[in-house]
Fold:
Amino acid sequence: MKFIHEYRDAEGARRLVDAIRRQVTRPWNIMEVCGGQTHAIVRFGLDELLPRDVTLIHGPGCPVCVTPLEILDAAIAIASRPGVIFCSFGDMLRVPGSQQDLLRVKSEGGDVRIVYSPMDAVTLARQQPGREVVFFAIGFETTAPANAMAVLQAARLDLRNFSVLVSHVLVPPALCAVLDAPNCRVQGFLAPGHVCAVMGTEEYRPIVEQYHVPIVVTGFEPLDILQGVAMTLRQLEEGRAETEIQYSRAVRPEGNPLAIAQIREVFEPVPRKWRGIGEIPGSGLGLRPAYARFDARTRFGVEQITADEPKECIAGDVLQGHRLPCDCPAFGVRCTPERPLGAPMVSAEGSCAAYYRYRRHAK
Structure:
């Protein structure tokens, strides 16, 4: 615990970087999983402070970025129907589908509304009994408890006009997919603190044991990330592989038992396709049979929608850490936040958006 709280200010950050330099004896590759961590790394140049032997690899931890194209096309198809109020968080409105985005649907008269909680959509369903209200339920485990609560509330109220379009994804199966890739370079992970605040750390233990990689649950401030890197490097240099918590002010090993119970009551693990990556077994959440009546894909008959990624977009390689955003020929030219080819350029946590904003000319 002393190690975690040892560095608190700019001078402490300098001493922390110096300590990292002294302990590194060989090249190491560490993947930060969360897009929020990626933005902090790029914005504050944390990777440029580290020794050349330490490489930070940007991971797939942006739920907006990995929402599969066919789910977006399904959302657009549902939102375009008369009599539907389609509710979503604001960061999904400009994510491109095959032909358009939800913002275009809204501009053409679709009733697409930005909400700040899934309970807002439940309230709308109560207020508008003659309209179908659909909530776009995306995200990692972080947002799953609130979305489960909305479904439970809709069930208690017997709302017949409320449904959810579910595209939840789970972090641990994604880490296994990264490690199983034939060209994997990752030797340690900075795990997302907000996800572990909900789920705890127990489900990462089998990954550590099977692949012998350290996993350090890390926060999102610059010092959090530097401390997480230092703790990961310490394990690597000592030949250890354990689950550790840097983000101790928010994360407990057991997580939030009430939130976990709520998730498990409403959702069950299902295969999920990740945009640009492909299907990962057991990496998604779907509604359990007891709540299947709230499934918007079934209600609106959009289960069979399929879509192909734009060939020019290398988002899949970026999300898996194989390439950097600036390696893409379209980056900053044919792909910009105003006209994105892929989700990582438009999402607030996308690595392409981070590079465009802070390192547009990086090579």
User: Anything to note?
Assistant: The longest strand covers residues 278-287. Residues 38 and 190 are 11 Å apart (CA to CA).
